[in-house]
Design the sequence.
C-alpha cells in the first residue's frame, strides 16, 4: 500500500472518531457518554502502562499511584473556592481562592505526576524484575497512605467530592489520541528503539552505547505524565476522588487490559481497553440485575490467568495494527470464502 | 612513555569470592592490529573482555584507550568512546527485527532530541533515513540483507553470531572485541568468518581483539597471540611461536 | 505506668507482631527461594484460615478443633493454589507469575466478599485478646504471650526440619541450584508442594493470631501483611529462611517503636514509613539482595 | 567384563536437540558397553554437554533415541533417570554452595531409602577423596575449586550409579588436582564402574578411556579405540590447528 494511501486512511479514521464523539455528545444518553469517557480514560491508562511495562519492560505495579496524584491535583485545582476553604484547610491562600479550568488542571496533573515519577524513578528503576515490582507496589501503598492521612489537603478517607463535571468526550478523546500518537512516535524513533533494546537485553544495549538507566527513566516519566492526565480526567468525570479508588483493583484491571492486548503493542492496548470497558459495563449490568456483586472481578482475574497460561503474548503480541495488515487479513478471508 | 598504543592496560586484577579470575594482566596494543587471546575454559578470557568494556569493575589496575583512562567507566560510555564487542553467549535483541538490531547500533552517533522525536522534524526524518540506509548497507556486507525483517531470535545460529558482530560494528568502534565467534561453526563457516573479519578490518580500519578456541581461525588472522591460563598471562608471541610453545600445548591438550 | 513497664509492654507487643510477620515471611521465602515466585496470594491464605476457623467454630465445634481444622484447610488451600494457578506457569518469566499471583489475590478476595460479604466480622474465638494479667504493674495480654510462645516453638521445629530432614535439605538444595537438584534426583514437585503446604499452614496460623489480635476479620485482611512480609524478607535477605525470621522481628520492632515515637498526627503514616524503609533497603543493595550473583551469570 | 547380557549399556541413536530454533545436535549416535570407559572430545560449543544433558533427562531431544539397559529413556525426567542408575556430574561442578559437604553427599543419595548403606557410602566417598574428610561440616561454597570438583564427583557417586557421566571434571583445575581427579577415575574404572567422560583435556581423556568419539558442530566425526585417536592427526588439528 502506498504511504499517501495509508495516511489518508488514518486521517479518515481520526475524522470518523471525532464524528462519533460529536454524535455521542449531541445524541448520546448520559450513560453512553459516561461509558465512552471511561473507555477513553482506560485507553490512556493502558497505553501509557504499555509504554513503561510493555515497551520498556519496567515491572511497575505502581502506575495507578500516578493516576492518584493526577486526580488529586485536579481535584484540588478545580474544586469550587468556597468548598476548598471549608474542606482543604492546609492549602496556601492563593490556591484556595481560585478555581482552575480543566486544561490547566490536566497539564499540572500530568506535570506533577511526571515530576514525582522522575524522583521515584531515580530510586526505584535501579531495581530489576520482581524487586522493582514490589518497590513500585510499595510506592502505590505510600501514595494511598498519604491520601488517607493528609487531611488538610486530601480530606482523608472521605475524599473530595462535588468536583465540577468538566470532562467530556472532546477532552478525553483528544487526550487519548494524543497519548496514542505520542507513544507510537516514541516507539518508532531512536528513543523507542533504545527502549526495546534495553528491554530485550540491557547489557547488550549498553555495549552499543545506550544509556540504559536514562532511557528507562524517560519511559517511566512519560508514562506517568499521561497516567496523571488520565487521573485528572477521571476526577472531573466521576466528581469524587477518594484514596480507595486508585488502588489494587484498578492496577490489576489496567494490567489485564495491557497483557490481553499484548505487551508492547500500542494498538493492541487500545483495542483491548475498549473491549474490556464494554465487557465491564455489560457485567455490571448483569450484576445489578441479579444483585450479586463482585462477579466481574472474579471473571476478569480468571480470564487473565487463562490468557497468561494459554496465550501469554496476548491478542496482538508485540505487533501493531496497520492498514497493510488489515488489507492482508481481508484478502486472506476473501480467498478463504469465495 | 610511548603513548602510541590504542589500548594500554596496566596490572589489571579482579577476583570473585576469593578466586582470582584475572591477575596482573597487561597489554600494549597498537592500532590496526589483530590480537588473539586463547586459553582453556575458565582461564579468564571473557572476564578480561568484561573488564575492558566496563561490565565488571577491576580490583586494581588501569585501562587506557586512545590515551584516556577509561577504568571504571559505565559500559555505555566506553562504547561511545569506540570500544564495542560481541558476546560469548549470543545476546541479541531477540524480538527486534534484524534490521532494528543493527539500527540500534548505528544510532550511537546522532541521538535526536526528545522534542524532535515527538514533532517529527525534517532533520529527524532525514537522520532516521540515514540510520536505516547505513544499517542496510552493513547487513549487505554481512550477507544478512535478505533477513532484515525477520526477528533476530529466528535466525540460524551462524547468522546470529554474524549479526552480533554487525551490531557491534554498527556502533562505529575503533576497537572491536569478538568473543568466540566460531564456537559451534563448521569448517566451511569458520573459513567464511575468517574472510569476513579480514574484510571488515580493511574496510573499517579496525583494531580487533579476538577470543577464540579454534586455531584455524586464530593462526591465520592474528599478528599477536596471548595465552591465558588460570587468570594469568602465560605466553605472548606470534602465532608460530605460540604453536611451538610447550606450555601452550600443555594448557590445551593437557599436561603429559 | 512507669517508663520501664511501658517499655516492657511495647517490647512484648513488638515481639508478638514480629512473630506473626516471621510466620508469614517464612512461607513467602520458602516458595520464593524454590520457585522465584513472589506469591502475593500468600496473605489470602491467612484470610482463608481465619474464615475457616470462624465458620467451624460458629458451627459449634470446640475451639481447638476449629483451629486445627482451619489451619489444615489453609494448608490444603495452598496446595490447591500451587496446582491450579502456579504449576501451569512453571518456567514462565518471574513477572508473569507475579502478575498471576496478583490476579489470584483479586480472585480470592472477591470470592471471599461474594461468600462472606464485604463487612468486618468479630473474631472472638477463645477470647484471646481481652484477658490481660499484670506482672509488676505491667499489663500483659494473653494473645501476645500465646503468640510468642507458639511462634518460637514452631520456629524451633522449622529449624530442625530444615537442618535435619531429607526434605528440608532438599528444599535448600533446590533453592541453591535447580539444575543440580534435578541431576541428583530430587523430585521437584514434591519439594514445591511441601514448601507450599508448610508455608500455608504457617500462614493459616499467622491468620489466627493476627485475627485474634485484631479481634476482627474481613476479606481483604491478607494483603497488607503479605506486602509487609515481603519487606521483612528483603530486610533479612530474600529467600533465606533464617533471614525471614530476623526480618519479621526487625519489622515488628520497627513498627511498634515507630508508633511509640511518632507524634499522634503522624501515626497514620506508619505503613508509608515501612515502605520507604523497603525502598531504602533495596537501594543500598541496588540489584536487590540477590543481585551480585545474578549479574555474574548473565554475561 | 560386561554385566549386562547385551554388553550395550547405553545406545544413543540419531539424537537431535534444539535450543529454541537453534539446532545443537544433528543426529549424534554412539554407544557405551557395560564396564567400559568412553570419552567424547571436542571443542567449545560442539555439543558435548548438550548430549550429556539429554541423556540425563535435563533436555528433551526432538528426534532420536536413547536406550539405556534395554529401555528407552529419552522422555524421562532427571529424577527418573537417576532412579535407573544414571548419574551426571555436571560441568562447572554445580555443588550446593550453601549446603555442607555432608549435606551435599546426602543429597546425592536423596532417592535411596537404605540409610545404613548410605552412611557406608559416605565413608567410601571420603576414602576416595580424603581431602573432604576434615571438611564435612564446611559449606560447599567455601571449598577450593579442586575440592568442589571432588565433592561433585562424590555426590554423583552417592546414588550408586551404574553409569557415571562426567562433564569436564578437570575444568579450571591446577595440574596437580587434574592428576588427582584422573586417578580417581582410574580407580572407579578398576571397580568396573561404567564411565562416560567428556573432556577438553583430550590427551588425558584418551589415556584413560577405552574408546573415544570426536564431536564437531553437533556431529560425531570420528570414533575408535583411544590409542588410535590419540595419534590421529585430525584430533590434533581440531585443537591446535594445522
Sequence:
Amino acid at each position: 500500500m502506498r504511504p499517501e494511501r495509508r495516511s489518508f486512511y488514518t486521517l479518515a479514521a481520526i475524522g470518523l472518531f471525532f464524528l462519533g464523539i460529536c454524535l455521542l455528545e449531541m445524541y448520546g444518553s448520559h450513560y453512553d457518554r459516561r461509558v465512552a469517557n471511561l473507555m477513553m480514560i482506560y485507553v490512556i491508562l493502558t497505553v501509557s502502562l504499555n509504554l513503561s511495562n510493555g515497551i520498556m519492560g519496567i515491572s511497575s505495579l505502581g502506575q495507578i499511584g500516578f493516576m492518584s496524584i493526577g486526580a488529586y491535583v485536579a481535584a484540588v485545582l478545580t474544586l469550587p473556592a468556597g468548598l476548598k476553604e471549608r474542606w482543604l484547610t492546609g492549602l496556601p491562600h492563593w490556591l484556595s481562592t481560585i478555581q482552575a479550568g480543566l486544561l490547566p488542571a490536566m497539564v499540572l496533573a500530568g506535570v506533577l505526576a511526571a515530576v514525582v515519577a522522575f524522583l521515584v524513578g531515580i530510586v526505584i528503576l535501579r531495581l530489576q524484575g520482581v524487586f522493582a515490582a514490589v518497590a513500585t507496589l510499595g510506592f502505590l501503598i505510600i501514595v494511598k497512605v498519604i491520601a488517607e492521612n493528609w487531611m488538610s489537603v486530601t480530606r482523608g478517607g472521605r475524599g473530595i467530592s462535588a468536583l465540577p463535571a468538566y470532562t467530556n468526550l472532546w477532552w478525553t478523546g483528544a487526550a487519548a489520541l494524543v497519548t496514542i500518537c505520542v507513544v507510537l512516535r516514541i516507539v518508532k524513533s531512536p528513543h523507542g528503539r533504545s527502549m526495546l533494546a534495553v528491554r530485550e537485553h540491557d547489557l547488550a544495549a549498553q555495549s552499543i552505547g545506550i544509556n540504559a538507566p536514562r532511557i528507562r527513566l524517560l519511559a517511566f516519566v512519560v508514562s506517568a505524565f499521561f497516567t496523571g492526565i488520565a487521573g485528572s480526567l477521571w476526577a472531573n468525570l466521576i466528581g469524587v476522588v477518594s484514596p480507595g479508588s486508585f488502588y489494587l483493583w484498578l492496577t490489576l484491571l489496567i494490567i489485564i487490559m495491557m497483557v490481553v492486548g499484548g505487551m508492547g503493542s500500542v494498538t493492541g492496548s487500545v483495542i483491548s481497553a475498549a473491549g474490556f470497558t464494554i465487557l465491564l459495563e455489560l457485567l455490571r449490568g448483569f450484576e445489578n440485575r441479579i444483585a450479586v456483586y463482585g462477579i466481574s472481578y472474579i471473571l476478569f482475574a480468571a480470564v487473565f490467568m487463562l490468557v497468561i497460561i494459554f496465550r501469554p503474548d496476548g491478542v496482538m503480541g508485540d505487533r501493531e495494527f496497520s492498514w497493510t495488515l488489515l488489507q492482508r487479513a481481508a484478502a486472506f478471508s476473501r480467498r478463504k470464502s469465495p | 612513555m610511548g603513548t602510541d598504543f590504542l589500548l594500554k592496560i596496566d596490572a589489571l586484577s579482579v577476583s570473585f569470592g576469593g578466586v582470582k579470575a584475572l591477575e596482573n594482566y597487561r597489554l600494549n596494543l597498537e592500532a590496526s592490529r589483530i590480537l588473539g587471546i586463547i586459553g582453556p575454559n575458565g582461564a579468564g578470557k571473557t572476564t578480561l573482555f568484561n573488564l575492558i568494556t566496563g561490565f565488571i569493575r577491576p580490583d586494581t589496575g588501569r585501562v587506557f584507550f586512545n590515551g584516556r583512562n577509561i577504568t571504571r567507566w559505565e559500559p555505555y560510555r566506553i562504547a561511545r568512546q569506540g570500544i564495542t564487542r560481541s558476546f560469548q553467549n549470543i545476546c541479541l535483541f531477540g524480538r527486534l527485527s534484524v534490521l532494528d538490531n543493527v539500527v540500534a547500533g548505528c544510532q550511537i552517533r546522532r541521538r535526536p532530541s526528545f522534542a524532535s522525536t515527538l514533532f517529527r522534524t525534517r532533520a529527524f526524518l532525514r537522520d532516521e533515513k540515514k540510520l536505516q540506509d547505513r544499517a542496510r548497507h552493513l547487513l549487505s556486507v554481512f550477507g544478512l540483507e535478505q533477513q532484515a525483517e525477520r526477528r533476530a531470535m529466528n535466525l540460524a545460529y551462524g547468522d546470529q553470531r554474524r549479526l552480533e558482530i554487525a551490531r557491534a560494528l554498527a556502533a562505529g568502534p575503533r576497537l572491536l572485541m569478538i568473543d568466540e565467534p566460531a564456537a559451534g561453526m563448521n569448517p566451511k563457516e569458520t573459513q567464511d568468518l575468517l574472510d569476513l573479519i579480514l574484510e571488515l578490518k580493511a574496510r573499517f580500519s579496525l583494531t580487533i581483539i579476538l577470543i577464540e578456541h579454534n586455531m584455524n581461525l586464530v593462526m591465520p588472522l592474528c599478528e599477536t597471540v596471548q595465552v591465558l591460563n588460570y587468570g594469568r598471562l602465560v605466553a605472548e608471541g606470534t602465532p608460530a611461536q605460540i604453536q611451538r610453545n610447550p606450555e601452550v600445548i600443555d594448557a590445551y591438550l593437557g599436561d603429559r | 505506668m512507669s517508663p520501664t513497664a511501658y517499655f516492657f509492654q511495647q517490647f512484648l507487643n513488638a515481639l508478638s507482631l514480629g512473630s506473626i510477620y516471621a510466620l508469614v515471611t517464612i512461607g513467602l521465602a520458602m516458595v520464593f527461594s524454590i520457585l522465584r515466585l513472589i506469591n502475593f496470594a500468600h496473605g489470602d491464605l491467612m484470610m482463608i484460615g481465619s474464615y475457616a476457623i470462624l465458620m467451624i467454630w460458629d458451627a459449634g465445634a470446640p475451639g481447638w478443633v476449629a483451629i486445627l481444622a482451619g489451619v489444615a484447610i489453609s494448608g490444603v488451600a495452598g496446595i490447591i493454589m500451587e496446582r491450579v494457578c502456579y504449576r501451569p506457569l512453571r518456567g514462565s518469566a518471574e513477572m508473569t507469575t507475579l502478575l498471576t499471583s496478583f490476579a489470584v489475590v483479586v480472585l480470592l478476595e472477591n470470592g471471599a466478599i461474594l461468600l462472606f460479604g464485604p463487612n468486618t466480622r468479630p473474631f472472638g474465638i477463645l477470647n484471646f485478646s481481652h484477658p490481660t494479667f499484670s506482672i509488676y504493674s505491667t499489663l500483659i495480654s494473653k494473645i501476645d504471650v500465646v503468640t510468642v510462645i507458639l511462634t518460637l516453638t514452631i520456629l524451633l521445629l522449622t529449624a530442625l526440619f530444615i537442618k535435619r530432614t531429607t526434605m528440608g535439605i532438599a528444599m535448600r538444595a533446590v533453592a541453591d541450584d535447580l539444575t543440580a537438584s534435578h541431576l541428583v534426583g530430587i523430585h521437584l514437585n514434591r519439594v514445591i508442594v511441601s514448601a507450599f503446604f508448610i508455608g500455608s499452614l504457617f500462614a493459616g496460623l499467622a491468620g489466627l493470631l493476627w485475627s485474634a489480635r485484631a479481634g476482627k476479620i474481613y476479606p481483604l485482611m491478607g494483603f497488607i501483611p503479605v506486602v509487609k512480609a515481603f519487606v521483612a524478607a528483603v530486610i533479612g535477605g530474600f529467600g533465606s529462611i533464617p533471614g525471614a525470621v530476623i526480618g519479621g522481628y526487625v519489622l515488628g520492632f520497627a513498627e511498634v517503636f515507630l508508633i511509640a515515637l511518632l507524634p499522634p498526627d503522624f501515626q497514620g503514616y506508619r505503613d508509608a514509613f515501612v515502605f520507604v524503609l523497603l525502598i531504602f533497603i533495596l537501594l543500598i543493595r541496588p540489584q536487590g539482595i540477590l543481585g551480585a550473583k545474578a549479574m555474574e551469570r548473565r554475561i | 567384563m560386561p554385566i549386562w547380557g547385551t554388553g550395550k549399556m547405553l545406545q544413543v541413536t540419531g539424537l537431535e536437540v534444539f535450543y529454541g530454533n537453534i539446532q545443537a545436535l544433528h543426529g549424534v549416535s554412539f554407544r557405551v558397553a557395560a564396564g567400559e570407559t568412553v570419552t567424547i572430545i571436542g571443542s567449545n560449543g560442539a555439543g558435548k554437554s548438550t548430549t550429556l544433558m539429554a541423556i540425563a533427562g535435563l533436555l528433551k531431544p526432538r528426534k532420536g533415541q536413547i536406550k539405556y539397559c534395554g529401555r528407552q529413556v529419552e522422555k524421562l525426567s532427571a529424577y527418573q533417570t537417576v532412579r535407573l542408575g544414571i548419574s551426571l556430574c555436571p560441568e562447572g561442578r554445580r555443588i550446593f554452595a550453601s549446603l555442607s559437604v555432608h549435606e551435599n553427599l546426602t543429597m546425592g543419595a536423596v532417592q535411596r531409602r537404605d540409610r545404613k548403606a548410605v552412611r557406608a557410602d559416605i565413608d567410601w566417598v571420603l576414602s576416595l577423596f580424603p581431602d573432604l574428610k576434615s571438611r564435612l561440616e564446611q559449606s560447599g561454597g567455601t571449598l577450593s575449586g579442586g575440592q568442589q570438583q571432588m565433592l561433585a564427583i562424590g555426590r554423583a557417586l552417592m546414588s550408586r550409579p551404574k553409569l557415571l557421566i562426567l562433564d569436564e571434571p578437570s575444568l579450571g583445575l591446577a595440574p596437580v588436582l587434574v592428576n588427582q581427579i584422573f586417578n580417581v577415575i582410574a580407580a572407579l574404572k578398576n571397580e568396573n564402574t561404567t564411565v562416560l567422560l567428556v573432556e577438553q583435556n583430550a590427551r588425558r581423556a584418551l589415556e584413560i578411556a577405552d574408546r573415544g568419539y570426536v564431536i564437531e558442530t553437533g556431529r560425531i566425526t570420528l570414533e575408535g579405540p583411544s590409542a588410535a585417536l590419540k595419534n590421529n592427526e585430525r584430533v590434533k588439528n581440531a585443537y591446535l590447528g594445522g
